[in-house]
């Protein structure tokens, strides 16, 4: 099984964290293929950056070509996720949706804990986008700056654990999600210091992507995520233009 682990940010160090955390839970016969965005921003933290990252994610999925069994858009707000499900036949999983659905199987209400206040509005809208607002006990974020996006989890570990414990004590969270791609792998390190289940989004996404790939679901031909009808394009990256126009990259009708 081959699963594309797509980081729509430009920070390769974050991709390394995602790959390391995902590899620990992947099945023995699963190959995680890590890919880092060649353009964009170091980490997505706002609505505007999410729009940019979503378009880049679609380009990256198109560039991956055949042979992919499933893909993970490895940014917590799931930029480009619904568009990807329209365009591509294989299952596409988002970090946020995978984490939240996993949390819903572990408790009645979950809290999202993250490292930057700028993320809160986007995350709140992401929860609503997935129809899970009534299951969310709250979103808690740290204040202040950090030294490096690749090292933020080590730099802020103690503060994030304290914030998670506040979410349990004050918000009534039954589950805590340590969110944001730069926090990949942190849940396993701190789980014994938080009195409720702690979900690592990339671990949840890898296992759910594997499950969907094994189930081999049919691509929808009707409904919300059917493939859109072909449409001409101008100026798009060639692989993505070919997908939208229903042709191969060599020009044949697909």
What does this structure look like?
The radius of gyration is 18 Å and the shape is globular. The protein starts with a strand and ends in a 9-residue tail after the last helix. The protein has about 250 residues and is of the alpha/beta class. Helices cover about 40% and strands about 15% of the residues.
Looking at the structure, the CATH topology of the largest domain is Rossmann fold
Structural class of the helices, strands and pairings? alpha/beta
Question: Into which percentage range does the β-strand content fall?
Answer: 5-15%
Instruction: Write out the strand line-up for the largest beta sheet, numbering strands in chain order.
Output: 2-1-3-4
Radius of gyration (CA) equals: 18 Å
What oligomeric state do the depicted chains represent?
A: single chain
Average pLDDT for all residues: 94
Domain module tally? 2
Number of helical regions: 10
Shape: globular
Largest sheet: 4 strands, parallel
- What's the architecture of the largest domain in CATH terms? 3-Layer(aba) Sandwich
Helix content: 40-55%
Number of strands: 8
The top level CATH class name of the largest domain: Alpha Beta
First-last Cα distance: 24 Å
Helix and strand run: EHEHEHEHEHEHHEHEHH
Unreliable segments (pLDDT under 50, ≥5 consecutive)? none
